[in-house]
Design brief:
The chain has no helices and 16 strands. The protein is mainly beta.
Length: 196
């Protein structure tokens, strides 16, 4: 069934285990001794630990984030494991990785953040006179007529394209004082799409 808890969730079952975590859970721990495991979780927000399985089907390209604070642990001694992202919906924050396309289920829009253009934010552990800024390159595709629009989006500065506004509300990790800037694939960009 559907689970809405934000707390640590542990499930142990025989037979097929099929769970949808509506809104997510901070950590998910699932063990199945005889059957398949199928999980549906919010996209781009979990580290994945699948353990040892005999047969394993892993659909986790949009889920495996090395810097995510949430974690999924799945064990299946005999069955397959399938991890699927929930569909993204407008008006709700969605986590993106650079280069990953997210298709919205309630709007004919697909978004991808193509690259990090600038990250001059004040590093953690440093004192800065200027807070700096983060700018990402974004491509919006309107499905149906295949209209594309490329833009630059700054953290906390919403833009409007193709009749939709996009706002970046969070970007992590912060640069660290005295260390090289994070690699593009290390960033998680939290963005919200809204129809205007």
């Amino acid at each position: 069934g559907d689970l809405t808890s934000r707390d640590v969730t542990s499930v142990s079952a025989e037979g097929q285990t099929e769970l949808e975590f509506v809104g997510g859970a901070d950590n998910i721990n699932v063990t199945s001794t005889t059957g398949d495991v199928k999980l549906t979780v919010p996209p781009l927000s979990y580290r994945i630990d699948t353990g040892v399985t005999i047969a394993s089907k892993l659909d986790i390209d949009a889920l495996a984030s090395n810097t995510a604070s949430k974690q999924i642990k799945v064990r299946s001694s005999k069955g397959a494991i399938s991890l699927q992202p929930q569909l993204a919906v407008s008006h709700e924050p969605v986590d993106y990785k650079v280069g990953w396309k997210v298709e919205y289920s309630d709007e004919p829009i697909t978004l991808v953040f193509d690259k990090v253009i600038e990250d001059s934010r004040c590093p953690s552990g440093a004192e800065c006179v200027w807070a700096g800024r983060f700018i990402a390159g974004m491509t919006m595709l309107r499905r149906g007529d295949n209209t594309k629009k490329a833009s630059q989006v700054e953290l906390d500065s919403p833009i409007t394209d193709l009749g939709y506004s996009v706002q970046l509300s969070d970007v992590r990790p912060l640069p660290k004082d005295g260390e090289p800037a994070p690699k593009p694939d290390a960033y998680i960009i939290t963005a919200t799409l809204e129809r205007q």
